[in-house]
């Protein structure tokens, strides 16, 4: 599965800042001390585990920012299934530049491949059901776009990107407004017709209060399986009167629980762990 990557224009500032952080005040003093200026190096990015690739453009940019003359060949683009020993990309150029970029390239490539792989694990567990697996805004600072891209590489779906692209009324909003109804009325009055409105409910009682306001999405927070099943029935029964609403399950989701939650009939399961707790995926840069 090939996933179109993010534009270099969006990725480059992140990679450049990461390189500056690593280079510090004096650059790569190790390479400068032991590697001749004209020495050249060939290497391959090789997978050490089975999973899904993501972040190859980050690795490419890390190399070419250090030296635009470096040759970088992608063999397995983002979204590819990879196994131990697979060569994801090849790089050739000045040794000092490649070694200076190595850690930043691997940090981003390994982390994002970890996100894609964990997402794929969740997607496989709910295979055959209608439920979609989605990420959340629980992303690492400044890496949201990259992490959400990696989620798509793993077969998952994206939740909102930020505070500005959808209304999500949560428990604290409800508390401040004084109730579900007041929060929904204010949201509907305060935004344009193209803006989606989602509201979080933590009980069946709150769900019943929200349905007459026809929210686009109901976020079912930490429901039990029986509560999820009841919510699905209530939403289906009210669809003719109030319109269909998407049901999103969230909270207490892991690889052991996600199948049972999906089997209740919810439309989406959002999983913060996809981005905030994904294990690092082992990839090495090996000389050839």
Notes on the structure:
By secondary structure, the protein is an alpha/beta fold. Helices cover 44% and strands 18% of the residues. It has eleven helices and twelve strands. The strands form three sheets. The chain has a six-stranded parallel sheet. Strands 3-5-1-12 form a four-stranded antiparallel sheet, with helices on one face. Helix 1 crosses helix 3, helix 1 (8-23) crosses helix 4 (95-125) and helix 4 (95-125) crosses helix 5 (144-153). The chain is elongated and about 75 Å long. The relative contact order is 0.15.
Question: With helices defined by DSSP (H or I, 4 residues minimum), what is the helix count?
Answer: 11
Structural class: alpha/beta
| Number of beta-strand segments | 12
What ranges have pLDDT less than 50 throughout 5 or more consecutive residues? Answer: none
Strand content: 15-25%
Biggest sheet record: 6 strands, parallel
**How would the global form be characterised?**
elongated
